[in-house]
Design brief:
Length: about 250
């Protein structure tokens, strides 16, 4: 699809959002760009945009089937998602089922310590301020959300965690943690936006704990796209793999 005919609304580090004729509908283009360290480390990985859009579409469909409202309308083609327009809330809502990543660098948790109930952490999404951890009082004082909206975000987030954790385990994947973002639609409703992909989640093989996500890139390891392809190949059914031409390399 040629996005040149559409006005650009937003250009992020890995996705671009374009206008359509309908002011409440946008096109989200998943690009091949990959970054870490607030954009300091950069690369382009062929097929990443396609894979992340297909993986995100699958997760959004599963969540919609569980009555969770998402921005997703449909995948027009690999890499190009038709979505409801949202006013995004600049919060990274991180759910942790197992201790990993920055949590271990910041706090004295044991590696792979399990959390039940899960921990919900919120960071302020800002490269300039390096995504600092935020609390409810600060988020409200900054005018990002009301306390009622924070409660709603937590309620939806716990449900998303529950639905995806169970789905992934059936596919042989553990779900240590993930980051999601919410926005408000024209009615002011809190809706899940952004993406759910190996860029924004930790996925580990349930038998070997092999890493199947962006941590490989963050740590400078090889096989990043093979890992993303492995996630797609495990979560999609055969019809979806054929439709999107997903082949194991
Ligand atoms: P962290 O352990 O590095 O804080 O990451 C927690 C989760 O959030 C992990 O699943 C990866 C995801 N994440 C993002 O989506 N964007 C980011 O900028 C970072 C740092 C993490
Ligand atoms: N948000 C980070 C970046 O901007 C990426 C990450 O570590 O996921 O580069």
């Amino acid at each position: 699809m040629n996005t040149k005919n559409h006005a650009l609304l937003y250009h992020g580090k890995a996705k671009s959002v374009y206008k359509t004729d309908d002011p409440e509908i946008v096109i989200v283009k998943f690009r091949d760009d990959i970054t870490a360290g607030d954009g300091e480390k950069k690369d382009t990985l062929s097929a990443k945009g396609h894979l992340n859009s297909i993986i995100s579409a699958k997760f959004f469909e599963i969540l919609e089937a569980a009555d969770i409202k998402t921005q997703y309308i449909k995948l027009l083609e690999p890499g190009v998602m038709l979505s409801h327009r949202l006013d995004m809330i600049p919060l990274e809502v991180i759910t942790r089922n197992i201790a990993a990543g920055s949590l271990l660098r910041k706090f004295p948790f044991k590696d792979k310590q399990e959390f039940d109930p899960p921990i919900i952490q919120m960071d302020y999404k800002s490269d300039e301020f390096h995504d600092p951890m935020i609390n409810d009082d600060i988020a409200v004082a900054l005018g990002f959300v009301t306390r009622e909206e924070l409660n709603e975000i937590r309620r939806i987030t716990l449900k998303i965690n529950q639905v995806l954790k169970i789905f992934l385990l059936e596919k042989g994947i553990i779900f240590p943690d993930f980051k999601i973002e919410f926005g408000k639609n024209h009615k002011g409703e809190i809706i899940l936006g952004d993406e759910i992909s190996p860029d924004s989640c930790r996925f580990w093989d349930s038998k070997t704990c092999e890493v199947l996500d962006k941590d490989l890139f963050r740590k400078g390891e090889t096989g990043v796209m093979d890992a993303y392809l492995e996630v797609a190949s495990r979560i999609l059914d055969d019809n979806e793999k054929e439709k999107w031409d997903i082949k194991l390399v």
